[in-house]
Specification:
It is a single chain. This protein is an alpha/beta fold and 589 residues long. The protein has 23 helices and 20 strands. The strands form four sheets. An eight-stranded mixed beta barrel has the order 12-13-15-16-17-18-19-20, surrounded by five helices. It has a five-stranded mixed beta sheet with strand order 6-7-5-10-11, with helices on both faces. It has a four-stranded antiparallel beta sheet with strand order 1-4-3-2, with helices on both faces. Helix 11 packs across helix 12, helix 14 runs parallel beside helix 16 and helix 16 packs parallel to helix 17. The C terminus is likely disordered.
Length: 589
């Protein structure tokens, strides 16, 4: 009886086990069938010699071969391509080979394969296969072609860290590089540096010639910057026209200054873009870590403050961070806030400085000069608020206001007296500037020949083509054009050949030098006067303050004179009073 019971138990156990195996087999078959029917997956199987057997149709399709050409061939040979002959396998193939050699299961292993001489990415999973005796019998697994997903993820990763226009590292990657540099500096008790670069005059190029030309210019800038750095530096684009350089090891005290100087010199060389000769410079601000910032954010902020200082000083220069810059930045922020409300609060006014005939000393014109009496800051120096207005482009609406005001006031003067209005590069390169001039003349009733627009040579360094076109429009209206500060900046006789200036203004530094018998100043004024006479242009000597200076410029042939000797900038009522009897003498006093 006991034997019968034991036999029955063994029979039932065997039947249960058999049923379980059958069930598992059915599950496996179901899974394998799903792999076969899937859009991207296939089965692969190799024997103990790592040769392919039981070739799946989808696996053959993935290899681009017929099933009969695959069976019995080494698995690695089929997916290695030319590297099978050279032995120079991709690291992922080495990894796959080692897993199979060690008979280890693996899942979602990313492998670079070569199919029909084209590199692709496969995701492979595999499990060692055992026979009924538990003896290793090869590998079985599934695979998928993930090339498209891989390329998409690589593209996403690239876009996350690189600027698409220039190919340079973007703000994210620069920030990471600053963090790495600061950790390196802390570990080795050295210092790193961060340099911020802002292009001078780029905004005018973008506004006048469009974003296509602006983008081409940025690409050329990035190419120049790439040539300047070594393995110790990383150059990137923060955005817009701002770039940055991370110096990993700045223990050489001269390195930062040398890099900044190279940047300014390289970026200041003219560019040729779409038949335009463009001049942009660069301003640089730098900060050292950890001295000027213990964190990435504070170090970058310190460099930004140094850059503000460089821009405030006129651009084209390099400044390092100083603690006092925080107070300066706060002052600038408050000043900009007040400047944005100055027009609507009627805080601007115009002063007028007389320009006289060098022979009879009669007033022939006035130069209109902008003044600002701020409710919060009192009278603010033009040297402080005009660069700020240009930097923020507030100079465009402010310039329109002063133009209208000056034309309106000039209508109260004798008909032979002109008014001269200074025009910044931001205004001149504004596409609506000529229309603004027409509007000011029309609303005031002033004749165009009584308006003279004063420009400096620096405008030709921004975009000479657009500047020339705008000036020609003004000349066609009948307005005069004066070239201010001639000889102090980027002088080129080419400007005088391209634009028919009506007046050339000789800078006061030459006037003072000539009065002191400076051979160089005397020669420059003689040359300017001779050139102006031959081109039928007038000359105005600026900054005449003494009798000796007046006699000197008269002797040298200047046609007009301007300076404190004949009158300081004055309010409109005082300017009108000069035309009363003995008025000019009162103004001189």
């Amino acid at each position: 009886m006991l034997g019968t019971i034991e036999s029955a138990r063994n029979f039932l156990t065997a039947r249960v086990a058999e049923s379980s195996v059958t069930e598992k087999s059915e599950v496996v078959s179901l899974l394998l069938r799903e792999f076969e029917e899937g859009e991207a997956d296939w089965l692969w199987q190799i024997d103990t010699s790592r040769r392919v057997r039981s070739v799946s149709p989808r696996f053959a399709y993935a290899l681009g071969l017929d099933p009969e050409d695959i069976g019995g061939k080494p698995f690695l040979q089929l997916i290695a391509g030319q590297s099978w002959e050279t032995g120079q396998f991709h690291t992922s193939l080495h990894d796959l080979s080692e897993r199979i050699k060690r008979r280890e299961s693996f899942s979602n292993l990313l492998v670079r394969v070569t199919v029909q001489d084209v590199n692709r990415w496969w995701e492979l999973s595999g499990t060692p296969k055992l026979d009924e005796n538990g003896v290793f019998d090869g590998f079985r697994g599934v695979g998928s072609d993930v090339t498209q997903q891989r390329e998409s993820s690589e593209k996403i990763a690239y876009l996350a860290r690189y600027d698409t226009l220039t190919g340079l590292p973007n703000r994210l990657m620069l920030t990471e590089a600053v963090g790495d540099a600061m950790r390196y500096a802390e570990q080795w008790r050295t210092r790193c540096a961060f340099l911020m670069i802002d292009l001078d005059r780029f905004k005018a190029v973008n506004d006048t010639l469009g974003h296509v030309v602006g983008d081409q210019l940025l690409s050329l800038v990035s190419e120049r910057l790439k040539r300047l750095i070594t393995d110790n530096e990383l150059i990137g684009r923060l955005g817009g026209d701002e770039f940055a350089i991370v110096i990993r090891d700045a223990s050489d005290i001269h390195r930062v200054g040398n890099v900044a100087r190279s940047v300014i010199e390289s970026l200041s060389v003219p560019y040729e873009v779409d038949h335009h000769t463009l001049f942009v410079g660069a301003s640089v601000g730098s900060a050292y870590g950890p001295r000027d910032g213990a964190t990435v954010e504070t170090l970058m902020r310190s460099a930004d403050l140094a850059l503000y200082r460089s821009k405030d000083e006129g651009g084209g220069r390099h400044f390092s961070y100083e603690p006092a810059l925080h107070a300066h930045a706060e002052e600038r922020r408050k000043l900009e806030f007040s400047l944005r409300r100055a027009l609507e609060r009627n805080e601007f006014l115009v002063h007028y400085q007389p320009v006289v005939d060098a022979t009879n000393e009669g007033v022939v014109s006035f130069e209109a000069l902008l003044r600002w009496n701020s409710a919060e800051h009192g009278f603010v120096s033009p040297a402080k608020f005009i660069p700020l207005a240009e930097d923020t482009r507030l100079i465009v609406p402010i310039g329109e206001w002063i133009l209208r005001e000056a034309c309106r006031e000039a209508m109260r003067w004798p008909s032979h007296v002109k008014v001269a209005v200074n025009v910044s590069g931001e205004q001149l390169l504004d596409p609506n500037f000529a229309a603004t001039v027409v509007g000011a003349l029309s609303s005031s009733g002033l004749s165009p020949n009584r308006l003279e627009v004063e420009v400096t040579e620096s405008i030709f360094m921004r975009d000479g083509t657009t500047a020339q076109h705008t000036l020609e429009q003004l000349l066609a209206l009948g307005c005069g054009i004066a070239l201010d500060d001639f000889g102090t900046g980027y002088s080129s006789l080419g400007y005088l050949r391209k634009v028919r200036f009506t007046t050339i203004k000789v800078d006061r530094s030459f006037v003072q030098g000539a009065a002191k018998r400076s051979a160089e100043s005397l020669a420059i004024i003689r040359a300017v006067v001779a050139m102006a006479d031959s081109l039928e242009m007038s000359t105005t000597a600026e900054g005449v303050e003494t009798e000796e200076e007046l006699e000197t410029v008269r002797r040298l042939g200047c046609k007009k004179v301007q300076g404190y000797f004949f009158g300081r900038p004055m309010i409109a009522a005082d300017a009108r009073a000069l035309f009363a009897p003995a008025g000019l003498e009162r103004g001189a006093a």
